[in-house]
UniProtKB/TrEMBL annotation:
Gene transcribed to yield this protein: aspC
Sorted UniProt keywords: Aminotransferase, Pyridoxal phosphate, Transferase
Protein name: Aminotransferase
Protein species of origin: Blochmanniella pennsylvanica (strain BPEN)
Molecular function via GO: identical protein binding; L-aspartate:2-oxoglutarate aminotransferase activity; L-tyrosine-2-oxoglutarate transaminase activity; pyridoxal phosphate binding
Record-linked NCBIfam families: PRK09257.1
Ranges for domain Aminotransferase class I/classII large: 26-392
């Protein structure tokens, strides 16, 4: 029965890390997978997380199952993190329900299954390019996947005109996926005016907007990074937000995220929750507790929260510092090209729009690992490798 099974291709991101680990060269540099790397070249456990874990170790009294939708205090804290400071009816009119999910990926998968099973939406539009796993997740849930243009490789900027004209043809009930902030892989987000135009089109065309929020806090700040979502909520009463705590809490291997469905009213929200529960029960029954307990403790405790917010700010500032240094170093070493676009990008990544040969050359000849068409994890750069990386990129660009 298993004889005819073919070998699947390696995952372009997680598979790349495996190739990197097996690479024996001493000077290899991993700028691939999107995890924060500190000055000591570690992906550290945040102090706020360690403190929450110490508290849990002392006070946790049971390993009993969580409910199907997860830890109640975590789900509520997520809702307040998303909408607690925005002045709208989502909280006051009880128009949303949140379920805990195994990471941002798990949240997207729950959302996609929820859409397929409970709505007339059968098609989803994702940006080109986008995070490589989006297509897998939506196809696996049974959605048909289409793309809209996003990146202009000549100007290294958002291709807003093409994006807008392409989305003008999207049918009512179709799902349109947006990266709430820190677009992965390009690091380019729409500005407020562009979000406003898109939200208007969405309301007029009656799409279902789905927001992937994997990097909250990595662009401008926890609230600032929700700008696009808030603009959409003003004109669109039904939408879905899938957020991840992998990056902003450094809880990568705890697989913790959430799926929040926003509806027109409390009754619709309650019905939606009941269907989300059916999907979860038939998949993994109920979620693991540890990541949710940690996030909930931190978000609900003043001292821990303030420690976490400072740690998040430090990660953001350190990446921004590296972004500037990277752009300056490239510019100093190659005056004939304009690298200023790097400073206009945001989040963990810089995106160079390289071709496949250039990415492979960087890996084979220089030991520098990038994802896809030249996505660079800026936190993997350091004072001691930035010159080497910049010069290698310049040499590669010239061929
Ligand atoms: C990434 O984009 O590198 C991360 O989100 C890791 C992943 O799961 O792909």
């Amino acid at each position: 029965m298993f004889k005819s099974i073919k070998m699947a291709p390696d995952d372009p991101i997680l598979g790349l890390s495996e190739i990197y680990d097996a690479d024996e060269r001493k000077n290899k540099i991993n700028l691939g997978i999107g995890v924060y790397i500190d000055k000591l070249k570690n992906t550290p456990v945040l102090t706020s997380v360690k403190q929450a874990e110490e508290w849990l170790l002392k006070h946790e009294i049971s390993k009993n199952y969580l409910s199907i939708e997860g830890l109640h205090s975590f789900n509520t804290a997520t809702q307040y993190l998303l909408f607690g400071t925005d002045d709208n009816s989502i909280i006051s009119k009880k128009r949303m329900r949140t379920v805990q999910a195994p990471g941002g990926t798990g949240a997207l998968r729950i959302a996609a299954e929820f859409i397929v099973k409970n709505t007339n939406s059968k098609r989803i539009w994702i940006s080109s390019p986008t995070w490589i796993n989006h297509r897998n997740i939506f196809l696996a849930a049974g959605l048909k996947v289409y793309t809209y243009p996003y990146y202009n490789s000549v100007t290294n900027s958002l291709n807003f005109n093409e994006l807008y004209s392409s989305l003008k043809d999207v049918n009512p009930n179709d799902v349109v996926l947006f990266h709430c902030c820190c677009h992965n892989p390009t690091g380019i987000d729409p500005n407020a005016e562009q979000w406003d135009i898109l939200s208007e089109l969405s309301a007029k065309k009656q799409w279902l907007p789905l927001f992937d929020l994997a990097y909250q806090g990595f662009s401008r700040g926890l609230q600032e990074d929700l700008e696009g979502l808030y603009i959409f909520c003003k004109k669109n009463s039904e939408l879905i937000v899938c957020n991840s705590y992998s990056k902003n809490f450094g809880l990568y291997n705890e697989r913790i995220g959430a799926c929040t469905v926003i509806t027109n009213n409390n009754k619709d929200a309650e019905h939606a929750l009941s269907q989300l529960r059916v999907i979860i029960r038939g998949n993994y029954s109920n979620p693991p507790a540890h990541g949710a307990s940690v996030v909930s403790l931190i978000l609900n405790n003043k001292t821990l929260r303030s420690t976490w917010e400072t740690e998040l700010k430090n990660m953001r500032e350190s990446i921004n510092h590296m972004r500037k240094l990277f752009a300056d170093t490239l510019q100093t070493n190659d005056k004939n090209r304009d690298f200023s676009f790097i400073e206009r990008q945001c989040g963990m990544f810089s995106f160079m729009g390289l071709n496949e040969n250039q990415v492979i050359r960087l890996r084979n000849q220089f030991g520098i690992y990038l994802v896809g068409a030249g996505r660079i994890n800026l936190s993997g750069l350091s004072d001691d490798n930035i010159n080497y990386v910049s010069n290698s990129i310049i040499k590669t660009l010239h061929t």
